[in-house]
Specification:
Layout: H1 7-18, H2 22-43, E1 45-48, E2 52-59, E3 62-65, E4 72-75, E5 78-85, H3 87-93, H4 106-123, H5 132-136
Antiparallel strand pairs: 1-2, 2-5, 3-4
Helix pairs in contact: 1-2
Length: 152
């Protein structure tokens, strides 16, 4: 079994890549994590293009069973954070290369997606509101998959 990547590993890799001290990099990485938590507390949803979506979901109260004793136990309702990976992350983890879809930079890709967001909303308007997860996962025919070759 492989060892889990820690925050320290991430800080070390980023500091080496960008030529910054680990102290500076740790402050930035921690700031990013803090901003995600604060955003979830305030808004309940964080969308990071080309990465994924963090969202706070409500879990209803339920009955569970203690596996040791078999006794039934009441589990109180709670809020949990769920993460849904973006299409590029899924493709990368599934064996494809992580790319920004032929764009020269992440900023260019983000601007393209922002301009086309209106088109995507119109295309997915026919999906029933009772299935919000389907609306978020609706295919976007105007966007090639990361495995498609970049345009000439």
């Amino acid at each position: 079994m492989r060892r889990a990547v820690t925050k320290k590993d991430i800080v070390k890799d980023i500091s080496e890549k960008f030529g910054r001290t680990q102290v500076e990099t740790k402050a930035v990485v921690q700031g990013m994590f803090d901003a995600i938590v604060e955003g979830l507390i305030a808004d309940g949803r964080i969308e990071l293009r080309n990465f994924g979506v963090f969202e706070v979901k409500e879990r209803a109260a339920r009955k569970a069973r203690n596996p040791r004793t078999g006794e039934q136990v009441a589990v109180s309702p709670r809020r949990v954070v769920v993460f849904r990976p973006g299409r590029l992350m899924e493709a990368s983890i599934d064996g494809g290369a992580l790319s920004s879809n032929g764009a020269e930079s992440d900023d260019e890709f983000d601007e393209d997606q922002d301009e086309e967001a209106g088109d995507a909303d119109a295309a997915s308007a026919s999906i029933p509101a009772s299935r919000p997860e389907a609306k978020a996962a609706a295919p976007r025919p105007d966007r090639p998959l990361p495995s498609d070759p970049p345009p000439p």
